[in-house]
């Protein structure tokens, strides 16, 4: 059994180039995809970037906008984007 810690006190203040106001931690990563916990401060953003893996973006609290290709959608707590 492996127990990983995440959340407040375990996040790193970094992300892809141009990331602002974001802290997070990768919980798991392999050839199939990545599971990461990410927290955005007000006005936080991750600049557009490529990701070859299948990615789920799950909103736990708050909300914002997600852009994939030419599509932009508003997401809120309790929603997930594939």
What is the CA-based Rg, rounded?
A: 13 Å
Report strand order across the widest sheet. Answer: 1-2
- What proportion strand? over 45%
- Biggest sheet details: 2 strands, antiparallel
The low-confidence parts are none
SSE series: EEEEEE
Helix content: under 10%
Overall mean pLDDT:
84
Judged by helices, strands and strand pairing, the structural class is: mainly beta
Annotation field: number of helices: 0
State the end-to-end distance.
29 Å
Number of strands: 6
Please state the overall shape, judged from the principal axes of the Cα atoms: globular
How would you describe this structure to a colleague?
The protein has about 80 residues and is an all-beta fold. It has no helices and 6 strands. The strands form 3 sheets. It has a two-stranded antiparallel ribbon with strand order 1-2. Strands 3-6 form a two-stranded antiparallel sheet. Strands 4-5 form a two-stranded antiparallel sheet. β1 and β2 form a beta hairpin. It is globular. The model has no long low-confidence stretch (mean pLDDT about 85).
